[in-house]
Design brief:
Length: 433
């Protein structure tokens, strides 16, 4: 019997997870059973993905940079990558602003619902505000200062320090380019082999993906808040989802225009990573799979993926920036505020920066939203309004974040002649006729 494609297996796992949880909620002991006996397997799955994120970045980035063999190629690729990341983020924020202004979801929410939401989620919102305050206390150049680790082992021991690991790996790779070939060769060989081992581990972990997402989704269903709140926030959620779907369209078109690869090819290639991003709400946890898919199924050379994707997972969050724009204006509308054009331009700038600063973990976008709100003069307490529905939207925006990274890596690869036919068979229809 032909084996089901991975994305179908994952989708089935997700669907069964939801159905199973819905059945279990019919029993009084059901939710607890899921929390105690099912959720841990989801956590094990996410942990095993996170486990290999730092070694993967180290090995693949060092290999990738040193394979470039010359610094000018590195700066060319670096410039294009960062440029494209910024352009796509600005497109995303602008799209979000257009939609939220046109639909005005904040005006559909009644005063009573508003007060009810503010009351129910005040505590949770305060926690996010406190997290954001910690980040805001720092000076203007703190983010830059934080890029350079003072101790690589310390940096590598915390998944939240991904950018520091990236900086070290690029620096190390540059060192490897600059030393004589015969001395560099054994070090490169070591990292080549190391990299292969990690890729094999990803293959093994992915065998468990359908079961992992089953557990994750089942746990999410039993932990989610009541559906009444979802209804109240329906229009807001609709705006975010519309923007996110349009963003996927933007990527597909960009990939088509710049690389001549069809939408079907792109989406088929990246879909398992998208589904995983959806299930885990974390671009960082998804990174190993994103890299594997983009390399082996979208045909991007390893020296491009190893450079573009880890950076993308940490700084390129188009879905997050779009959501931040929509959420900020929605909260303003719900409080009856009219935002001027210049305030909205300010939102473009702050949401772009805030998404760059958001960690690639669940809920991070909401913490940084506080900064966007503060800059635009919108009450931060408004965070409580959108709290109830944040997790499902986080799942969707993470999917877009990961798709954006993949699209940019294909375009960068094409521009430096590093896009080829993937080795996987059955892709004979991926070129546009
Ligand atoms: N969960 C998102 C990510 O990891 C970040 C966020 O928007 O909260 O990409």
């Amino acid at each position: 019997m032909k084996k089901l494609a991975l994305h179908w297996q994952i989708l089935l796992g997700m669907a069964f997870g939801v159905i199973f949880a819905l059945i279990m909620t019919q029993f009084a002991w059901g939710p607890e059973f899921i929390s105690d006996w099912i959720k841990p397997f989801g956590n094990i799955f996410i942990n095993s993905l996170k486990l290999i994120a730092v070694p993967l970045i180290l090995a693949s980035l060092i290999k990738g940079v040193s394979d470039l063999k010359d610094i000018s190629k590195l700066s060319k690729m670096g410039g294009r990558t960062i440029g494209l990341y910024i352009v796509t983020t600005i497109i995303a924020v602008s799209l979000g602003l257009l939609i939220v202004n046109a639909i005005a979801p904040g005006k559909t929410i009644s005063k009573e619902t508003r007060n009810e939401l503010l009351e129910s989620y005040r505590g949770d919102a305060d926690l996010k505000i406190a997290d954001a305050a910690k980040q805001q206390e720092t000076g203007p150049l703190q983010a830059l200062e934080d890029l350079v680790p003072s101790n690589i082992f310390k940096a590598a021991s915390d998944n939240g320090n991904m950018l520091q690991v990236i900086v070290f790996a690029i620096f190390f790779g540059i060192g490897l380019i600059l030393i004589p070939e015969e001395q560099a060769a054994p070090v490169k060989k070591f990292f080549d082999g190391f990299n292969e081992v990690i890729l094999k581990l990803i293959d093994i972990i992915m065998l468990a993906a359908p079961y992992g997402v089953f557990a994750l989704l089942a746990a999410l269903v039993v932990e989610s808040p009541s559906t009444d709140l979802f209804k109240a926030l329906g229009m807001y959620a609709f705006c975010v989802l519309l923007g996110l779907s349009l963003m996927i369209g933007v990527y597909v078109i960009l990939v088509w225009i710049f690389t001549k690869k069809t939408p079907r090819f792109f989406i088929n290639g990246i879909s398992p990573a998208q589904l995983l991003a959806f299930s885990t709400s974390s671009s960082a946890a998804t990174l190993p799979v994103t890299m594997e898919r983009v390399e082996e199924h979208l045909g991007v050379d390893e020296d491009v993926t190893s450079f573009v994707l880890p950076i993308g997972a940490t700084i390129n969050m188009d879905g997050t920036s779009l959501y931040q724009a929509v959420a900020a204006v929605f909260i303003a509308q719900a409080f009856g505020m009219d935002l001027s054009f210049s305030t909205q331009l300010g939102i473009i700038a702050t949401a772009t920066l805030a998404s760059i600063g958001s960690a690639a973990v669940p809920g991070a976008g909401m913490v940084m939203l506080v900064i966007v709100l503060a800059q635009a003069g919108i009450p931060e307490a408004g965070l409580a309004l959108i709290f109830a529905i944040d997790r499902p939207l986080d799942m969707c925006r993470t999917t877009v974040n990961v798709t954006g990274d993949a699209a940019v890596s294909m375009i960068v690869a094409k521009s430096v002649d590093k896009l080829h036919d993937p080795e996987t068979k059955n892709w004979d229809d991926h070129y546009t006729k």
